[in-house]
Amino acid sequence: MKMKKLLFISASILLGLSSCEKYLDINNDPDRIVESAAPMNLLLTNAMVNTGFHSGSDLHRYSSLLVQQFSGQTTGGETQTQQYEKYLIQSADVNNLWNSAYATTLNDLEIIIRLSTAQNAPYYRGVAKLLKAYNYQLLVDAFGSIPYSEAQQASANSSPKYDADSSIYRSLLTTIDEGLTDLNGAATGLVPGTNATIYAGAFTTRKSNWIKFGNTLKLRLLIHYSKLNKADCVARISSLVNQSGVSFFASNADNFEMPFFNITNRQNPIHQFEIGRTNYLFPNKFLVDMMNVTSDPRRPFYFTPFPYTSNNYVGAKSADPTSQNYSRMHVYLRGAVTKAPTPTANGALNPLPAQGGIEYDGTAPTRMLTFAEYNFIRAEAALYGAPGNAETFFQAGITASMQAAGVSASNITSYITANGRLTGTDNQKLEKIIKEKFIANYGVLLEPWTDWRRTGFPVITKVANAVTTDIPRSLPYPQGEIDANKNCPGQKPDLLVRVFWDK
Fold first, then answer.
1. Which of 79, 379, 450, 480 has the most C-beta neighbours closer than 10 Å?
2. Residues 39 and 3 in one domain
3. What burial letters (b/e) apply to 277-293, b meaning 16+ CB within 10 Å?
4. Which domain holds residue 281?
5. Is 282 helix (H, G, I), strand (E, B) or coil?
6. Distance between CA atoms of 54 and 138, rounded to whole angstroms?
7. Which run of H or of E encompasses 163?
8. Which residues, in sequence order, are CB contacts of 92 under 8 Å at separation 6+?
9. In angstroms, rounded to a whole number, what is the distance separating the alpha carbons of residues 354 and 101?
10. What letter would DSSP give residue 321?
11. Is 77 within a domain?
12. Structure pTM?
């Protein structure tokens, strides 16, 4: 506004001093970029980078703490992660993730969709719609009802209404179909190129990855209906997988993931958090003990041993004594080891290389939707009556997860021989599928929490020092949104409010 007033004053002076009919147009703000001139290639890069970082940041930590994959430990006073682990997640804690999603990622994607339509660039539009569906799916699964149909309108609507979470899901399924239609059509106009950070490379070869991602993402949304309406879930998944020519993830090379680099500020966000907030997080005892029971060969990749020179893996839990005498997150989430550690006298590892800890290169990807998850979705759906053999998909999910972690073929075979059969009642079979999916989705944003909410597996016990009456079912609305959006319904009564598919 100040800039416009100054321009108005300048124009008035010029008009008073000259009979010239030309004057400054006060309706053109020189500090505002005209949307039609925005470069789609840079917007897409930004949206992908933010999607990748978002998938390894706040929301990932909150959900991993809630389902006891991470533990919020410390070597000093109580930290935020310890508060989150006992379910003390407050409205101010989610401001950043909400703002990052709405003001940056989703805003960029909406601009791309508009520009690509105006410029007849369907491949850009197709990719943007799939990314939009993925990012909104995360927000719905975390918060429930959110702004959707009136969102991303900038100053035209600064208080968008809240849409019902169930109606948003229906719209997202349509958005995925629209994106796939764009990608399956002929190329016109601009085509994504080397600006892509997810599925990087020539789009002529990477287009098939995006199509597989769209179909697999649709499967993820459909399996979420299993608790609400199992028959409808099975019918829609059956219809999808029986479609002629439809393609899904076929190997780990298809994984929807964001790569990172051994460059400052370009490393994996989980690794960056470990460096910036030392001793805040450790692997949780619940997950570690689950894997100890089966001598899971993924443990040397997921965790460091404790003591370091042993073959033991020790997880932490909420309200444990202040200590760093636990296993730590390892190469699967942090990247390759570039410098070996010097353990303490009792075999613990200090957090930083300068203190004798392990040095990592930070190149582990953020895994957002994987081939392993695809197989576990198909296993669960087949158990309910959808096409395919549940045990075959179950074993394929385990295999894909172990291959991605770096487990040898012989160890994979041994593990599946001992643990890869689906026996017992259907409920017992479901528990086995979800437990293995829970382990495979270590590091995958939100989905382990979602699976627990809709299936009850794995069976998680409320932490002893909980500040709520039960394990949270959704996150609070951010305080900034409550203050700024007059159409916000107000804060939830508690964190036990359920997302529509959790009813």
1. 379
2. no
3. ebbbbbbbbbbbebbee
4. 269-364
5. strand
6. 10
7. strand 162-163
8. 478, 479
9. 35
10. P
11. no
12. 0.92
